[in-house]
């Protein structure tokens, strides 16, 4: 296999991505896809202090979020900001929802979707164990086998050119 160079280093095409990174990507994707539902109900003012204490938001981030006039705009910037700040955004948001205990339906929605996707991912990387297919199982049921025809086939005579 030919090696391509990128800044003097060979590119490894057999890169394996860890399950942890894949699950983190799934979590961030869930936040992005459930954004519209989150924007309807999420009150970022209840979560900024907790997420600041977990270093997911800076003081500047909080000021920018609080400066916006409507809750929906604050929620939008809040989601954008936490998603930019690392792979732990989903986990820390869920922790904050759990700690606040006022929007547990959002936590349930996020975790239900995560469990569904995680199970789907697991089924892709670990298919169900099946019987050993290297051996064929042949049935000896003589009733299911085709039976020879009882009628006689016509005999075709061929003239011998001698």
Structure description:
The chain is mostly helical and 162 residues long. It has a domain at 17-122: Death Domain, Fas (Orthogonal Bundle), CATH 1.10.533. The protein is 52% helix and 2% strand. The protein is built from seven helices and two strands. It has helices at 19-33, 35-41, 48-53, 59-67, 71-84, 89-100, 104-125, and strands at residues 5-6, 9-10. It has a two-stranded antiparallel ribbon with strand order 1-2. Strand 1 (5-6) and strand 2 (9-10) form a beta hairpin. Helix 2 packs across helix 5 (71-84). It is elongated and about 105 Å long. The chain starts with a strand and ends in a 37-residue tail after the last helix. Residues 1-6 and 130-139 have low confidence and may be disordered.
Please sum up the structure shown.
By secondary structure, this protein is an all-alpha fold. The chain has a domain at 17-122: Death Domain, Fas.
Task: Jot down its keywords.
single chain; 162 residues; mainly alpha; Death Domain, Fas; two-stranded antiparallel sheet; DEATH-like_dom_sf; CARD domain-containing protein; CARD
């Amino acid at each position: 296999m030919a090696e391509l160079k990128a800044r003097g280093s060979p590119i490894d095409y057999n890169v394996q991505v860890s399950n942890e990174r894949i699950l983190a990507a799934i979590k961030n994707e869930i936040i992005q896809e459930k954004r519209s539902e989150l924007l309807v109900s999420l009150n970022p003012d209840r979560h900024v202090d907790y997420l600041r204490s977990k270093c997911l938001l800076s003081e500047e981030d909080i000021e920018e979020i609080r400066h916006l006039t409507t809750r929906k705009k604050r929620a939008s910037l809040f989601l954008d900001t936490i998603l930019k700040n690392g792979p732990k955004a989903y986990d820390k948001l869920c922790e904050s929802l759990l700690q606040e205990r006022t929007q547990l339906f959002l936590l349930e929605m996020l975790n239900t979707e995560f469990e569904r996707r995680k199970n789907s991912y697991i089924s892709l990387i670990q298919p169900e164990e099946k019987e050993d297919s290297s051996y064929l199982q042949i049935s000896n049921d003589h009733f299911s086998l085709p039976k020879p025809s009882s009628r006689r086939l016509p005999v075709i005579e061929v003239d011998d050119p001698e």
